[in-house]
Amino acid sequence: QVQVVESGGGSVQAGGSLRLSCATSGLPYSRYCMGWFRQAPGKEREGVATIDSTGRSRYGNFVKGRFTILKDNAKNTLALQMNSLEPEDTAMYYCAAAALCRNTGLIGTGYWGQGTQITVSS
Questions:
Q1: Following CA atoms 39, 42, 43, 48 in sequence, which dihedral angle do they give, to the nearest 10 degrees?
Q2: How far is CA 98 from the centre of its chain?
Q3: What are the tens digits of pLDDT across the range 53-81?
Q4: Nearest CA-CA partner of 70 in 81, 59, 58
Q5: Rounded to whole angstroms, how far apart are CA atoms 58 and 46?
Q6: Which is the most buried residue in 59, 74, 93, 116, by most CB within 10 A?
């Protein structure tokens, strides 16, 4: 059974930093594409960052160098280091896995976590 579990969300002031973590099990992790996605109230879900099996990463245009996605194949974990957070980054953040990446999206059956909330205050 595949499990994807996020942690590390919370509240922070604008300009601050947070690090999200994602633990997985039941996947051929090193061969999978992993990604972070977010959804704000009233908005569609958008891709924040993905990293494929070769270690190639892609970021949404809004990231602008502020976030870094990190994939640890030895521990089957994924992280998202977020710096210079802005109120516009407030959203529910999701970790997801799939066989392939396409830019900041996934291809194939996706496995999703329950999400972790990030709130950035001005």
A1: -20
A2: 13
A3: 999 999 999 999 999 999 999 999 999 99
A4: 81
A5: 13
A6: 93
